[in-house]
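ARCHIVE CARD
CATEGORY: sequence design from structure
SOURCE FIELD: tokenized fold
FIELD CONTENT:
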């Protein structure tokens, strides 16, 4: 039984802690911590070419390796926000090999905007461009943007 207790304690200690507000995320990053983002797309709104469409039942995730925060008014922004992005070369069944570019903005009011684009690797032509809007989740609501301290 002591081994089982030790294993349970180790699992509990290694479980990521949820960050449920913009202030939590910023404070954790400013202290040098790592943040993992998980997006449940079906719990966001999707805009494609200016038209709202049903969001797919898909999940994506990324680690905030590089980020910037912008205080209100710094870049003519109405709200403070954090910006991060990630690009990976992927194989897509319809588009072939493309760069999957994802940009996330998390705003001080807990709203979030995620831009997803597929770019041809030789020309950088955009072959897919989607914008998802949602809110940071506290784990008990129906919001689709989840952030965890690592």
């Amino acid at each position: 039984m002591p081994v089982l207790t030790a294993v349970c304690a180790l699992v509990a200690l290694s479980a990521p802690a949820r960050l449920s507000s913009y202030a939590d995320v910023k404070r954790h990053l400013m202290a040098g911590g790592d943040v993992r983002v998980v997006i449940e797309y079906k719990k966001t709104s999707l805009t494609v070419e200016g038209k709202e469409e049903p969001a797919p039942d898909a999940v994506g995730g990324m680690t905030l390796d590089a980020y910037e925060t912008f205080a209100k008014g710094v870049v003519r922004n109405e709200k403070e926000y954090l910006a991060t992005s990630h690009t990976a070369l992927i194989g897509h069944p319809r588009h072939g090999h493309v760069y999957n570019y994802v940009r996330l903005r998390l705003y001080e009011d807990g709203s979030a905007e995620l831009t997803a684009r597929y770019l041809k690797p030789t020309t950088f032509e955009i072959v897919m461009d989607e914008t998802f809007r949602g809110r940071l989740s506290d784990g008990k609501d129906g919001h689709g943007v989840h952030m965890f301290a690592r």
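CARD ANNOTATION: The chain has two helices and eleven strands. The chain has a mean pLDDT of 93.
SHELF: design records, drawer C
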